[in-house]
Design goal:
By secondary structure, the chain is mostly helical. It is built from ten helices and no strands.
């Protein structure tokens, strides 16, 4: 791609694609929010003890698959969104290390989220089935230990790093880019929300920061909707 094409204004097709990718983050997230919320009380169910969570997953195996496939699509859709926002920045004459870092953090966040989500498509349903069929209390206890260990590790990769830290940094960089592109209110909001997500990842040091993980997701979804509207009006 030449320097001239990078600086060229976005076409209507490119702008529409960006709008749809922004909206996809909201629409696709509704799948796990509704399906998993009704079936297993997600996301609160992530904090349940293994002895309670595994039977819940086993009883709602189909819903768990549907919900987490939707969540997986939400995560993977961040990759084209990160690249489309990089193109948006180039179209507004904004190029350089920060714009490239913005795209890199967006893609990295998508990968980390995906690594955390896939445990619910493969490993956790298998553990839930084994737990339900085991009659020996010692075997059930061993399965529960495996659940806790896997949930702690993969959950930290997906949620702590993907959803909070890397997504937060990405959103801060997006906000800075939007501010420079003239969408100042959208940019300020993205920067504040992104900083909040990044701070919430510090809950391992400051447990009180965990409250941000409850407050910020609906604000983030609202920001995506407002941003999509701003892009649509400026197309």
């Amino acid at each position: 791609m030449t320097t001239a094409s990078l600086a060229a204004p976005m076409t209507r097709a490119e702008n529409l694609t960006l709008v749809l990718l922004v909206l996809a983050q909201v629409v696709l997230f509704l799948i796990p929010l509704i399906v998993l919320g009704q079936a297993i009380g997600w996301p609160a169910s992530l904090r349940l003890p293994a002895g309670d969570a595994l039977p819940l997953v086993a009883r709602n195996a189909t819903a768990v698959q549907i919900g987490y496939w939707g969540y997986l699509l939400t995560a993977t859709a961040m990759v084209p969104l990160a690249l489309a926002l990089r193109r948006f920045a180039h179209a507004h004459g904004d190029r350089g290390l920060l714009v490239d870092a913005m795209a890199a953090f967006g893609i990295a966040a998508a990968i980390l989220k995906t690594l955390g989500i896939v445990r619910w498509l493969i490993a956790m349903p298998s553990l839930a089935t084994l737990h339900g069929s085991a009659s020996d209390p010692a075997i059930r206890a061993a399965i529960e230990m495996n659940y806790v260990a896997l949930n702690s590790y993969a959950g930290s990769v997906g949620e702590l790093l993907g959803v909070q830290l890397f997504s937060g940094i990405w959103l801060v960089l997006v906000g800075m880019m939007l501010y420079r592109a003239g969408l100042r209110l959208n940019g300020i909001a993205a920067t504040v929300i992104g900083a909040g997500f990044a701070i919430s990842a510090m809950r391992t040091i400051v447990p009180a920061a965990d409250v941000l993980a409850v407050i910020l997701p609906p604000l983030g979804l609202g920001w995506f909707l407002v941003f999509a509207g701003a892009l649509w009006r400026s197309r």
